[in-house]
Amino acid sequence: MESVLLMKGGDWCRAVRAASAGMAVVMLVSGCGVYGAAMTRSQRVLSQRRVPSLEELERAEPERGRAIRKAVSRTGLLLEHAKVGSVSGSLTEHEMKFEVSWKNEAKGALSAAVPITRDGYFLTAAHCVNMESLTLVAFDAKRRLVNLPARVVWKGEEADLALVHAEMRPLEPFRLADGRAIPVGTRVVIAGWSGAIKNTAPPLAAGRVKQVTGWRREEASGAVWCDVEHDAPLNQGDSGGPLLTLDGGLVGINSLLGFEFGGMWRALLGISGALDQPFAGYNGLAVCPDAGWVMRMVEADRAKVR
User: Fold this and answer.
1) Ordered DSSP codes for the chain
2) Residue 248 Ramachandran class (φ > 0 left, ψ -120 to 50 alpha, else beta)
3) Mean pLDDT of 193-200
4) What's the CA gap between 283 and 23, in Å, rounded?
5) Is 80 exceeded by the pLDDT of residue 12?
6) Where does the pLDDT of residue 209 fall: very low under 50, low under 70, confident under 90, or very high at 90 and above?
């Protein structure tokens, strides 16, 4: 069973908006994973860079580079329309193991979700919550791997963001950082569940911030966010996962990946270049919500369900 790149009409609209905002992205596609076919060549080019990017980070920042590996165990796995057959896992200070099997694998899609409160609120990407049936798999505060139904609290129309909730206490919530305050060139790490397809630990990849947009506002909902462009290599299953600073701050939610025309052709032709260097012409995109707005959404939902 392999994963295939999922392209959705809504994401093409976002590509046009991102380009008009000055982002160096001319072709954007979803990073969300689905089951059934081989990865595209461009995804293979990026996959080859994931381990070297993390190794380069750990050479440059040995203590913080190793410490950030622990953050991945806090990231939830979000399954759309995929009945979980069984879940088992263990978590220690030095090792994480998990195994998830699905029943109706051919129809399901997987992505990631990021805990932001101790009572089960998670951020993810809007394009990852298109189906009614959602299952969240995550380590809880007692280090148990659990699977629970999740409900969508809010889903953006313009912002590729969604807020979901599950009745659990997650292992450790992430701290929302101010994406607008992140300088260009800052080292960052992405996490996701692209490795879940083969029941391996969710991978990490490292890169640097390339550009940050100004604050944007969605009129219908009042959502406030900025876009953070980076060169950390994304893969299927990383959508909805965290973009992190080296101290564990949550910069944004993995949304899209794209290529400038030159980078796209190099990827299609298999011209990879040095694997320990960023792929020229590639851009990853994360959506960074305003922390105050997010917590107002959380408080409003808490009031409704009390």
Assistant:
1) --EEE---HHHHHHHHHHHHTT-S-SSEEE--EEESSPPPHHHHHHHHHHHHHHHHHHHHSHHHHHHGGGGGGGPEEEEES--EEEEEEEE-SS-EEEEEEESSGGG-EEEEEEE-STTSEEEE-GGG--SS-EEEEEEBTTS-EEEEE-EEEEE-SSSS-EEEE-SS-BS-PPEEP-GGGPPTT-EEEEE--GGGGGT-PPPEEEEEEEEEPPPEE-TTT--EEEEEEE-SPP-TT-TT-EEEETT-EEEEEEEEEEE-HHHHHHHHTT----TTSPPTTEEEEEEEE-HHHHHHHHHHHHHHH-
2) left
3) 58
4) 9
5) no
6) very high
- For 9, counting Cβ atoms within 10 Å of its Cβ (0-12 exposed, 13-18 middle, 19+ buried), the class is exposed
Q: Which pair of structure tokens corresponds to residue 295?
A: 């917590």
Beta-strand pair 151-155/145-149: unpaired
Alpha-carbon torsion, ordered 158, 5, 263, 252, to 10 deg: 40
pLDDT value of residue 15: 36
Crossing angle, helix 41-60 and helix 261-268, to 10 degrees? 100
Q: Tokens standing for 201?
A: 């630990």
Residues 6+ apart with CB under 8 A from 183: 209
User: What are the chain's domains?
Assistant: 3-69+176-292 (2.40.10.10), 74-173 (2.40.10.10)
Range 64-71 average pLDDT: 76
Look up the pTM and report it. Answer: 0.83
Which amino acid appears at position 158 of this protein?
E
pLDDT at residue 3 above 60? Answer: no
Q: Which residue has the tokens 């979980």?
A: 84
